[in-house]
Design goal:
Blueprint: H1 8-20, E1 24-25, H2 26-30, H3 37-46, H4 57-74, H5 84-87, E2 90-91, H6 94-110, H7 124-142, H8 154-168, H9 172-210
Antiparallel strand pairs: 1-2
Length: about 210
């Protein structure tokens, strides 16, 4: 078994070096990271969606991968086994290098205000299960078919990102923020559904009135 990195920073540096060169398969990369691979993989899969644009077919693949990772973490697996398509995803090229650098900057920024607190939220089997279900829920919300909505992927991606940061930094407050992003996502989708239903009904009534 290969030696695991001493920290997530070393793992990110190692992955960035590979991505800038010949690349590395996501499945192979996770094999180096031990239990932290759950949140590391989820962070990598979610970060590309922290922007307002649709990523097309990548949305479904990454969302399903997040669901799989969250399920396995939530059910007590030691390491994630990704779907074959996701495991063969090659971390390579300028796009993934930008994602990895963003992860490094994000963690560095978060460490300005994160610290170990509310550790019961992120420690032990109970904390692992909780984070796993947050990741699964975020992945499920990402795959909701709402491609024309602004921020439809951004909000659940933030839910996953904060859940992962909470676990990696042992900061339960970040998981509370993750839950808040999840609630915000659900309220956003609910508001859109209600708006579409309301205006759809009004438009239908208006058209019916014209042709009476």
């Amino acid at each position: 078994m290969s030696e695991e990195p001493d920290s997530l920073d070393l793992a990110l540096d190692d992955c960035l070096q590979h991505a800038a060169g010949e690349g590395i398969l996501l499945g192979d990369m996770l094999g180096r990271l031990g239990r932290s691979s759950f949140c590391f993989a989820s962070l990598l899969l979610a970060v590309p969606f922290v922007q307002p644009f649709s990523l097309g077919p990548l949305t479904m693949m990454c969302g399903l991968a997040l669901i799989a990772v969250g399920w396995q973490m939530g059910t007590g697996r030691e390491r994630p086994a990704l779907p074959a398509a996701a495991a063969r995803l090659r971390i390579h090229g300028k796009g993934w290098c930008a994602v990895l650098r963003f992860c490094k900057r994000l963690l560095a920024f978060c460490r300005k205000f994160t610290r170990p607190r509310f550790k019961s939220w992120v420690s032990g089997p109970r904390g692992d299960r909780f984070i796993g279900w947050l990741i699964l829920t975020g992945g499920a919300l990402i795959v909701v078919p709402a491609a024309n909505l602004p921020l439809n992927n951004t909000l659940p991606a933030l839910m996953v990102v904060f859940a992962c940061i909470g676990w990696l930094e042992r900061d339960g407050l970040m998981t509370i923020i993750s839950v808040a992003w999840g609630v915000t996502t659900l309220l956003y989708f609910a508001a859109v559904i209600v708006t579409v239903f309301f205006f759809g009904t009004q438009v239908s009534a208006w058209i019916a009135g014209i042709f009476k």
